[in-house]
Model the fold of this input.
Amino acid sequence: GSVKRRVFASTLHFLCHFIAAVVILIFVEMFIVCLSELHHGLGDITTFQTFKKHFVRTYSFVTHVDEQYCGAYGVCVQCVELSFNAIDIVGAYVSLRNKMCASTGNRVYKILYHCIAFLFYYILAAPVSAFILGMYLFISLNWFGKYDEGFSSLRLESYKNFLRFHLNEKGTLVCYVIGVDRVPSRWKMDRKWQAETHTNEPSFAYKCPSKWIPFRSQGKYNRSKKWEYRKIKIIDQFEMT
Done:
């Protein structure tokens, strides 16, 4: 296509991803705010704080291990808190957001907040971005004729091609790109190939050089007799001297 058409398609594709990203970010924030309004106290009391309140002896044991082996770092307590936050990830996200808004959270809480926010964003953005890319490939293939981008993603069993090289007497290497429109999906061993005596001759000299033949799912007859499974064509040809 022309340069203007390419610029238009690229700009439209970029705008679709950009608008989708902004909408998802706004949706995530609206979702968290709605949860906070509908469920009062969500995020104010985390699962870790509930654990501290109801399991005092267990929490005292964890702090004792911290004091004996970890010093003043509180590694064990932080690990337990992270474990409870992973279980109640929505409550932890709301709690971190409240601390961020109240300017009481340190840098660690800010990093955790952005990591959890990215997790929510990724869960929503992955299918949306995949849908936009799929629509781009579908439109490019059907209306713009850009087969290079869209053909591989279709995962078609037919319309395959392979290469054959021929070195002639002049020393020129000729490459033939051979295309096949219809490719069988099921194969079976050819009885004629089994009955033939194979010698040290090259396979192209055999009467039945192919060991496998295509057949129906029911296996009633040889599908290689059908013309669409035997029709090949030279798509491209070039020489290397």
The beta strands are 160-167, 173-180, 187-189, 212-214, 232-240. The mean pLDDT is 76. The chain is about 55% helix and 15% strand.
